[in-house]
Amino acid sequence: MSQYLVGLAARSIQRYVFASNRLVDIIGASALVEELFDAEKLRHDFGPLNTEVLTSQGGSATLLVTGDTPPTDGVACFSRRRLITAPGVEADVQILTHQTGSLAEELLLLGAKLTEASAAPTTSVPHPAGAGFASCRATGGAASGIDPRTHTPLSRQAAAARQRGLAEADRRGTPLPTPLHNWSAIEPTELDHLGRTSGQRSLIGVVHIDGNGIGAKIERWLQGAKDLADAEFIAQLVGWSTDLSLCTDAAWEEVRQLTEAAIHEKFDGGSLQLRGEVEDLNFGLVEQAGGAGRKSTFLPIRKILQGGDDLTFVCEGRIALSLAVAATTAFGEHVAGTLGPVSACAGVALVHSHSPFVRAYDLANQLCENAKQAFSGEAALDWQLGLLEPGQSLAEARKPLLPGLTCRPYRLQSDAPHRSWAALDELLLGTDPGGDSLRSPQWSAVGAKVRTFPALARRGPDVLASELRAWRIVDNRLSLPPPYQTNGFATSDGKTSTPLLDAVELLSRHQQLRPFAASAQDTDRQDGEQLPFGERFQAGRP
């Protein structure tokens, strides 16, 4: 009996998942890819008694199959299942004959072959809509049927994704934590269910989190594992692969817990509201009729993609940065076994709820990569308000921000205030009424002056310093927190920059979420009333 190493990898997962702009279709397409590479289903394809699934995540899988001949029958079963259950997904397959004690070299070779195969032209040609063809309302391709719910034409790919997405929509919710146990929480399948404030422009946050240097860590492990026996090699491989999945699991669990902890019942007891430290940025949640006497509400978050060291989710725009920071921090609190300590970066695209989703995802991915390049190996965050122009790079979009006029991206774990998210979030955007942040009572009373900070900063530190001195003659409380109190700029590593433009941009868009310690008095307060800062947030930072 021989053993064969089989590599399976989906092509252009993002293009497939984001072919439609409807959240229900995106969720369905993501679920179809996940199920296609499900370990149990792969064992069924290749034979449960002679197949060991080494890795299976993120639209790819590696199998070790025992048999007299190469497992072409298993490949045929996998391909048949792909065409039936996930139409439109393209996948590459590579098979190597395994030699005992050579798994490390073979995995490196298998990865190279899959990368080479993915660069080759596809053998399938999508049929565009044209003369004699109805156009799919979701993807723009040729339609092959009618959606029975909306009576609109859909392609096979879109129909399969929508059917799977609607199955997710039919799932029952889970009870919210006490004292809201009489409510069920449901993850939405429509962007309009993420929550919004009437009369205000609706922003969503597309958040992409990716581990730092994980590929390099894996390659170093492979180089050092060449002398391991097959059993020990497989044990370590499965171990760190599972640990990486636990990192993204922990990140998403932190997102969900932080969101649920911020949900409170309004004073009238008839609806729910998400509350943070900034009262003006609280917003109501969208409700739906529940069953068996339990009321249901949609959470303002939805996971879209998760695989390996990647996590992508969408949420209401006002809480996107707080959730991105919490998820990235939770990711780094886990150790990926043999790979050692890990960290991640986050990119957040704050866009209109009806923006093309594929472009929003691409922007979030660019922002994440920009954070990685700025702080190699460190946890960091970058964001952008609004989509880029078609074909425009992030660097081109930020050219109007002359050097020093933004501190983006920001470090998440830094003792120094320069380019530190903690400094921006707590010093400049904090809600302590006794502080000097832009949300303090003295600065809130002179909003017109705060809005001039971007223009003043563009004129340089000297002009800004002069204006600050003039304002303090009238009101000596108008001082910025250290180290920005002199002219709004700070110097680090020989470079001078200001976070004021970033802070002003986030004043009306960034809701701070922190562990909430509810008190008995809170239940007696009317809706909109909040406890003092020290009483409300007794638990401190996550």
CATH topology of the largest domain: Alpha-Beta Plaits
SS element count, helices: 18
Mean pLDDT: 86
Residue windows where pLDDT falls under 50 for at least 5 positions: 127-132, 517-542
> In the CATH classification, which architecture of the largest domain applies?
2-Layer Sandwich
Strand order across the biggest sheet?
Answer: 15-16-9-17-18-19
Number of strands: 21
**Total number of distinct structural domains:** 3
Which terms would index this structure?
single chain; about 550 residues; alpha+beta; Alpha-Beta Plaits; 6-stranded mixed beta sheet; 4-stranded antiparallel beta sheet; 18 helices; about 35% helix; disordered C terminus
Question: Topology, please?
Answer:
Blueprint: E1 2-11, H1 13-17, H2 23-36, H3 39-46, E2 51-57, E3 60-67, H4 72-85, E4 90-97, H5 103-119, E5 145-146, E6 153-154, H6 156-169, E7 174-175, E8 183-186, E9 203-211, H7 214-224, H8 230-261, E10 263-265, E11 272-274, E12 283-284, E13 287-288, E14 295-298, E15 301-307, E16 310-316, H9 320-332, E17 344-352, H10 357-374, E18 380-385, H11 394-397, E19 410-411, H12 421-428, H13 441-444, H14 447-450, H15 453-458, H16 461-474, E20 490-492, E21 495-497, H17 500-506, H18 533-536
Parallel strand pairs: 8-14, 17-18
Antiparallel strand pairs: 1-3, 1-4, 2-3, 5-6, 7-8, 9-16, 9-17, 10-11, 11-12, 13-14, 15-16, 18-19, 20-21
Helix pairs in contact: 2-6, 8-9
